[in-house]
Each structure stands twice: as structure tokens, then as C-alpha cells.
Specification:
single chain; alpha/beta; Rossmann fold; 2 domains; six-stranded parallel β-sheet; 45% helix; elongated
Length: 359
């Protein structure tokens, strides 16, 4: 089985976290199911005019792959521009098309220039995969169609063999964290839609309430300077660790007492699964697909998006109650096991098999 994989996000040695879940699923499909991949991917971040060159290079590589024709299936990750470009190799060579929508791409794909192409790709697809029920509803509402092959809800999964609970005290010592002080963690892009300013403001509020903690932001992005400004009064309690390789996140999660994802919009919140797999309870917002994996009062706590007071209140309650944190942590790992990446990859492999069988 040979798959032509298109993705406008893919990791590199310089940027190992960029679309790393696409790469991980690809390698899992190869190791567990013998799928061979040809890659048409971009490892460069875009944005603004930089997208022109990024998309042009991706389209050029798509044309070359189409001319070669050495693939049985086309699989596009993201609607914009990958799914639009994937029409070319799928139609030219009469190959089945599979599309995975991840989150924000459901909205960016509705931009006037792109929506017609993306809609045609969705109609043409043998199967459209979305990472949450929420995203499936948004897809149908945004494009006004039911894809020909239907929609499969299947997230990218978490490597539960890698992300496991561990020795929290040892992990904390490795990171230079003081004993007896709870550790709050955020992992993700430092961008406005991730709600990082809400978290930074809530942390300052916690300090004013005399709640002891240490906090770490892992990731990079345009909000870094603003976050440093907001947390200036508590700079000794907050660390900005920058971007870390995916495998290095395991010990970071293990060092945490709480993981926080305050996103204003989120297709699923894959990073929540990584925290849960390490036995870390999650404080997150009630938006997008997050409530599909975070059950309020079971494995974490949910607050409303943008409500900084409620976020600070939830953090204060959990940081002050080790028994409650332990109870939430006990259910965390079980949730993650339901989303193991091997299980999710097997579902994609079945989609491939069905696509070939229907041809």
C-alpha cells in the first residue's frame, strides 16, 4: 500500500514540534501496518506573505508527485492548502482521496479564494477524518455538505508507551523546581487563540492571593514578550522554556501537578491527552473538542473561555487541595489509554484498506 501524504505542517530538526503528530501517525502506520509513504510536506512555518512561497513550493512538489504517479491513495492533512492541492494527484491518477481536518483549518479553508477547491476536495474524498465530534459538526456547517464517504471521528492519538506516569519528585529535581511547591504547566504555541494571556493574568492573580506555585510555559510564538510583561511582577515563579523536542516533554509533564490549556478555540487538545497519559489532571476551557476528553470533576476541571477569574479560582482550588488533584489524576491515565495512537492509526489503516477495496 503506497500513500502520497500531503501536509502543510511537518516537523524538522530545526522545528521538531511543527506538525509532529502527522509524522508520528505516518511512522506508526508504517511500523504497524506496512504502509509506504511518499511525502509532499512543508516544514516551514508560514503566515502572511510567507505563505505565498510556502504554498508555491508545496504545489510544485504536488505536481512532481502527480507526474510520478507512484501511489495508491492520496492522504491530505489539513484543508488549507493540502486538501485543495490533493485534488490534483487524486483526479489526475484516479486515486482515492482521504482528508484529515485538524482544527483551525476548518475555518481557514472557508476563505473566499479557497472554499470552492476545499469543498470539491471534501465532496471527492473517500473519507474525511476529523479529530473530534465538534469539528465534524463545524465541518458540515461551514461547507454545507456531507462528504461522499462520510466522516470518521478519529484523533491523532497519544503514545501511551512513551507518555507514562513517572517519579514526579525526580522530574521536579531535574527541572530545578523546589520541593513542596505545586507546578503548573502549559505546552503549546504562544499565540493569542491559545489563551496564554488569560493564564498569565490568572497566575499573577494567584500570587496576589498568596497561593504558592511555580509555572512553566513550553513553546514559542509571538505572544512571548507580552507574557513576559504580564508575569513581570512574578518573574521568579514563572519560566519560559522555549520549544522542546517531543520526546523531552515526557519529563516536563511528569514534573507537573496541573496542566492548563486555556485555548479560546481548540479542535481537540491533543496536548491534554499527553498530560493525562502522564497522570496529570487538566484545567481547560469548555470549548471545541476539549469536553470530549476532559470530564469536569473526573480527570480535570473546565472553565468558560476567556474567564480569567474562573481560571484563577479553579487553579487556586486545585493547587490548595492535593487530595482532589490525586483523585483527578487517578482517572487521567485511563482516559488517555482510550486514545492510544496505535488504536487511532489502526482506524486510519482500515480507511486506507476500504478506499482501495472500493476502487
Amino acid at each position: 500500500m503506497r500513500v502520497l501524504l500531503l501536509s502543510n505542517m511537518y516537523p524538522s530538526s530545526a522545528d521538531p514540534g511543527y506538525g509532529s503528530f502527522v509524522s508520528r501517525q505516518q511512522h506508526r502506520l508504517t511500523s504497524d501496518h506496512g504502509v509506504e509513504f511518499s511525502l509532499v510536506v512543508s516544514a516551514r512555518r508560514g503566515g502572511g506573505w510567507a505563505n505565498v512561497g510556502k504554498y508555491a513550493r508545496l504545489l510544485g512538489s504536488t505536481i512532481v508527485a502527480t507526474l510520478r504517479g507512484d501511489y495508491d491513495i492520496v492522504h491530505a492533512h489539513y484543508l488549507l492548502p493540502s486538501a485543495a492541492f490533493a485534488l490534483l494527484p487524486a483526479l489526475a491518477r484516479h486515486r482515492p482521496l482521504v482528508i484529515t481536518a485538524h482544527g483551525t483549518d476548518v475555518y481557514t479553508g472557508q476563505r473566499p479564494f479557497w472554499k470552492g477547491l476545499v469543498t470539491r476536495a471534501l465532496r471527492r474524498a473517500h473519507r474525511v477524518i476529523v479529530v473530534s465530534d465538534f469539528l465534524g459538526r463545524e465541518l458540515e456547517a461551514g461547507y454545507g455538505i456531507q462528504p461522499r464517504g462520510g466522516v470518521l471521528v478519529s484523533d491523532m492519538g497519544v503514545d501511551t508507551a512513551l507518555f507514562t506516569p513517572g517519579d514526579r519528585d525526580a522530574a521536579r529535581r531535574t527541572r530545578g523546581l523546589p520541593d513542596g511547591v505545586p507546578h503548573v504547566l502549559f505546552v503549546g504555541n504562544l499565540v493569542e487563540t491559545k489563551g496564554v494571556a488569560d493564564l498569565a493574568t490568572a497566575l499573577v492573580s494567584l500570587a496576589a492571593r498568596k497561593t504558592g506555585f511555580r509555572a512553566t510555559f513550553v513553546g514559542g510564538g509571538p505572544m512571548l514578550a507580552e507574557l513576559q510583561r504580564i508575569t513581570g511582577p512574578i518573574r521568579d515563579s514563572v519560566t519560559f522554556a522555549g520549544v522542546l523536542p517531543h520526546h523531552a516533554l515526557v519529563d516536563v509533564f511528569r514534573s507537573a501537578d496541573l496542566f492548563v490549556l486555556p485555548s479560546h478555540r481548540e479542535g481537540l487538545g491533543l496536548v491534554c491527552l499527553e498530560a493525562l497519559a502522564c497522570g496529570v489532571p487538566v484545567v481547560a476551557v469548555r470549548t471545541g473538542g476539549i469536553p470530549e476528553i476532559i470530564a469536569d470533576g473526573v480527570n480535570g476541571v473546565l472553565v468558560e473561555p476567556g474567564d480569567r477569574v474562573a481560571l484563577a479560582d479553579a487553579l487556586e482550588r486545585l493547587l490548595g487541595d492535593a487530595t482532589l488533584r490525586s483523585r483527578l489524576a487517578a482517572a487521567a491515565r485511563a482516559t488517555a489509554l482510550e486514545h492510544d495512537e496505535a488504536v487511532q492509526a489502526a482506524r486510519v489503516a482500515q480507511v486506507y484498506a476500504d478506499a482501495l477495496g472500493s476502487g
